[in-house]
Amino acid sequence: MQVANDIPSAVKYPNATGDPPAPPLNMEAACEKVSVLVRQNAVVIFTVSGCCMCHVVKQLLFGLGVGPTVVELDRDTSGGDIHSLLLHLSGGGKRQQVVPAVFVGGKYLGGIETVMACHINGTLVPLLKNAGALWL
């Protein structure tokens, strides 16, 4: 996964304790953290706590029997930098919805629209099986 060096910084989220966020990591560190997570886990969802669309995606996957790794960006010390990286991966843009961001089998699948479309057209379960997230 490559990231351009000129990615604009995103809004920094406070950590779970309510303290100010830690100084931002650089994009390379955020990219490495995301890369490690998606390589080591069949399904990873980047979310923000309280986001209804994130809740829907998590419930869909849990309902299918998948145990995704969930990273809540507003509770992660590097959440702002990961948010910037996800904005870049999703195509950028001010109106672009960044979360939920779903990775399956080490690859970026997309957000809620893509996940729901895959579920409706019957391609989500095969993707999850191929990634080793389902043993049906």
TrEMBL record:
**Where is this gene product found?**
Cytoplasm
The family database entries (CDD domains) matched by this protein are listed as: GRX_GRXh_1_2_like
What domain of life is recorded for the organism? Eukaryota
InterPro entries in the record:
GlrX-like_pln_2, Glutaredoxin, Glutaredoxin_subgr, Thioredoxin-like_sf
Q: Which Gene Ontology terms of cellular component type are present? A: cytoplasm
Q: Which Pfam families match?
A: Glutaredoxin
The Glutaredoxin domain covers 43-108
Q: Which UniProt keywords apply?
A: Cytoplasm, Redox-active center
Quick check: keyword Cytoplasm in the entry? yes
Family per similarity comment: Belongs to the glutaredoxin family. CC-type subfamily.
What name does the UniProt record give this protein? Answer: Glutaredoxin-C9
